[in-house]
Amino acid sequence: MENKLYVGNLPYAASEDDLKEHFSKAGTVTSVALIKDKATGRAKGFGFVEMSSAEEAQKAISMFHGQDFMGRSITVNVARPREDRPRTSGDRRGGGGGQRNF
Asked: pLDDT digit string (tens) for 32-55?
């Protein structure tokens, strides 16, 4: 099992210090990263917490998954590697109204 945890459904007001304090109840927190929107700098509502051991990570999942954190029921599970997605260039508003070939 991995030490890095995905934490989702976080309140936007949560800080990295809030997460570190909360997860330290399950063991030693080695790092915390809240993910923020590049354009606005606003939190996206999820982040990652790394515990010092796989056992502590499992304990954190058992203790906190589905539990209340600052008024929200959070998701806590093992972080999976980010999937490679093809990069798009230019306009990100979606596909145009061209002809569809079925």
From this structure: 999 999 999 999 999 999 999 999
**Structure-derived torsion over alpha carbons of residues 24, 25, 28, 33, reported in degrees to the nearest 10:** -30
Q: How far is CA 33 from CA 3, 45, 58, 71, 89, in A?
A: 14, 11, 19, 20, 28
Distance of alpha carbon 83 from its chain centroid, rounded?
14
The answer to whether residue 83 sits within a structural domain is no
Domain membership of residue 96 (yes or no) is no
Render pLDDT for 2-14 as a digit per residue (tens, 0 to 9).
899 999 999 999 9
| Rg of the chain over all Cα atoms, to the nearest angstrom | 17
Range of the domain at 62: 4-78
Count of structural domains, the chain: 1
23 located within any domain = yes
